[in-house]
Amino acid sequence: MKLWSLRAKLMALIVLALLPIIALEIHAAREASLRADVEVRSEAVRLARLVASNQQTVFEAAQQLLMTLAQVENLRSPASANGCRSLLQRLLATNPLYANLGAIDSEGNVFCSGVDLPAAINVVEMDYFRELTNNPSVSTGGFDSERELALRPAYVMAYPVTDAERRFLGAVFVAIDVQAASELSANVALPPGATMSVIDEEGQYILHYPDPEKAIGRRAELQNLVQSIPAGGSEATLTATIEGVERIYVVEQLRGPAVRDLHVIVGIEKAPAYAPYRKALKRQLLIITSIALSALAAAWILGSLFIVRPARHLVNVARSVSRGNLEVRSELPLETGEFGEIGGAFNQMADALERRIDELNGMQRELREAHDDLESRVERRTEELNLARLRLVDAIENLDAGFVMFGPDGRLVVANETFREMFANCADAIRPGVTFEEILRAFIRTGGQVEGMTDPEAWIQQRLEYFRRADGTVVEQKVNGRWLSVSHHRTRDGGVVSLRTDVTDRAEAHAARERGAKELRRSNEELERFAYVASHDLQEPLRMVASYTQLLARRYKDKLDQPAREFIAFAVDGALRMQAFIQDLLRYSRVGTHGGPFERLEVGGIVSRVLENLRFAIDEKKAEIVIGELPTIEGDRLQLTQLFQNLISNALKFSAPERPLRIEITAERRDGMWEFVVKDNGIGLDPEDTERIFVIFQRLHTRQEYEGTGIGLAICKKILERHGGRIWVESRKGEGAAFHFTIPETQGER
Description:
Blueprint: H1 4-69, H2 84-94, E1 98-105, E2 110-113, H3 127-134, E3 140-144, E4 154-162, E5 168-177, H4 178-185, E6 195-199, E7 205-209, H5 212-215, H6 223-227, E8 235-242, E9 245-253, E10 263-269, H7 270-322, H8 338-397, E11 402-406, E12 412-415, H9 417-422, H10 436-445, H11 456-469, E13 475-479, E14 482-490, E15 496-502, H12 504-555, H13 562-593, E16 599-602, H14 603-613, H15 615-621, E17 624-627, E18 632-635, H16 637-653, E19 662-670, E20 673-680, H17 712-722, E21 727-731, E22 737-744
């Protein structure tokens, strides 16, 4: 380290101390520059608005003139054009801003003009004329770059001429002299070096100050400024350098239908506006530089006397110590200040260094002993890890499942013997370093069989996609005659571990169960069809037996004795009971095969209709019906009506004679299901019979006690099974019964 660097550091500290002052001066200059920028931009915006207002006044006055001329009879059609030229010439003489005035017929021909035109002019192809013919209710405008209507550069404004029914007859136009308009705009007090322009939708200058002759008709350099106007806005600001001069430009959009695509651009030169602020900044920086140089000179001289000399002494002492002379000591007195304290601390450090060297020698001996012990431990740990690796390899090889591991690069690391046996036809291809795709292709190439595979390439791509995903999804597939359950799992280092388990026994058992279930469904369907056909075909013979037996009783009533009449009554009763039995059986068989469509139903409305159907029986029993709040569900309207009618009829039938009958109907939502309860205070039943009553033709009472066929609750059970629910009863004999049943809130597709 050079001693004079201390002086350099001292001077650097002085510079750092001066930096905030310099920064404040720069900040103040920056703020002044920003204020100047704001003032210049504000002045540019004001001038742009003023110029735009002047131009707006010109265009509005021209539009008012056109609206007036559109009502002049001489200008409405070529047939009435007498005297129109003299009228237009008088108007041109009074307003030097207008280069020409004229009228156009509906075909685009100029039939009247305030100035002599060299030839017949047709403007049917002009944009503003086409817009008038399409929408003869607004005025339009455009730049006449060809100088056809005014013999010099002009901006043409046109207004439609229509009849009383708003039909388009032609147009009147005014050609505004763009050079005269430029001179009018130049009357605004523009600062030195400022520019003013008006550009059209094509980006051409139609007004420009200064030098309007050079610019008019030429493409504007600031067309992109127009594109920077925000949506819904009317002005924008941009700083740009054109022809070597940097200016702040402001664009202002003109208002009105005839000038909606015209923009005024005012540019103010930046250099003159910022000159005072830059001069003040230079003056302040000169003062600060003078102060900084004086401070640095003082720091250099004083630093040599009070810093460098004591520091050189300390450096010499330190060099002696570094060469191994631990007896050398600093001679600086404490009265010299911080350097004296450093010298005293250096002496203490030298004393401590001698002691520390002795301690380090002892620590080195201990470190060597610890190193020897660590090497011994590492050796033992390495042996343990090798043993664990061998155990892991043995475990993988002894797995009942096929195990295979691929590294992060997608190449095989290890595969157990079970995996090779599963792919015995391509076992030679299963070796470390191959990819999963190479194994699949070797499997196909060596005659591997996959059930359902029609396109080997498509099968390979499907397996590769599943392998790359490695999300643990389990897929089963029959390979080489065996069903395998396959899953791929991502390892922490980005590799893949695959497990393949032979599930042939389970798959075959599942297939057998599926075949049994299918056979059971087919058998049930055949039984239902048989019950329906049998019950339907048996009704006609029974009706014939009952009818002829009753006819026999009526015709030979006086000729039969009492036992004969009783026998006939027994026969009729048996036939009628058999007919009712068959009809109930027919209804039971139709629950699963003749059900109606599922629809959204209000259960309260269904219960109300059932109560109306049973009104006579309810009044006869003087029953009290209590109905809770019932939901809206999806179901078969007729079957749910039959369900509630069977349950309420049972409650009416099995009422207790010793107390008034009370029936409660409630519902409660549980886990996506609606649980309904039809509860009564009738005679009830034994708890041991709560399952038997839902079996077809099972009765708990004799026919003499209570009529019926014993099939009503079986029908209720079958209806609820079709709706995805179930039914059960809670009861004690003599205490009434509560029939519970569930129905899903929504049925989905059934």
